[in-house]
Amino acid sequence: MPVDPEAEPQPVLATNSPTVPWSFAPHGARIAYHMPSAETHLDLWTAPLEVTANHAAAGAPEPFLRTSAIESWPAFSPDGRWLAYGSSESGTFEVYVRSFPDDGHVVRISEGGGRAATWARNGRELLYGTDDGRVMLVAYTVVDGAFKPTHPEQWTPVAMAPAGVLPTFDLGPDGERILALLPSPDARAAPAPNHVTFISNLFQKLHP
After folding, report:
1. φ, ψ for residue 153 (rounded to 5)?
2. Are the C-beta atoms of residues 19 and 31 closer than 8 Å to each other?
3. Which residue in 81, 150, 164, 189 could disulfide with 139, CB within 3.0 to 4.6 Å?
């Protein structure tokens, strides 16, 4: 919707399944999203966007990656040449990078688990989260058209709050700080573990 208090939301993309938009290509020319399939779990799709001052509409959706693994969190690089994403193809979620459009080559970025990658605007770094709440940084270069990442390093010793499959941080435009979801310092505010309560003879207790 336009940034206007009087504006109404406009449908951009209609699908038959729950669709999670995740990333815009540079200049908003394309959107990347993940969408479930009965045959292939979560898949990656993109769609071209036509944006004017008062209207936005998506063109025909195009599959980017559809495999028997779960793929999610597709994120365009600042120059639009690469797409980072998470996949369960190894048995656990890891972060991978493919060129856009896809030429079939894939580069694994994370080690020991990774999800929800975020690109730095400097075109040299990629951050991602881990299952245990760490934020990892990978520097990269592009040599003769090939994506060359370095070994992941911990970006901060501070652990993020547990949030399941949701992202827990976002990188600032200057690449120097993140907006983070941190655990509460008050132990009393910590969520209790999930549990199930079974009540027997419920109706007798409601109507003695």
Report:
1. -130, 150
2. no
3. 150
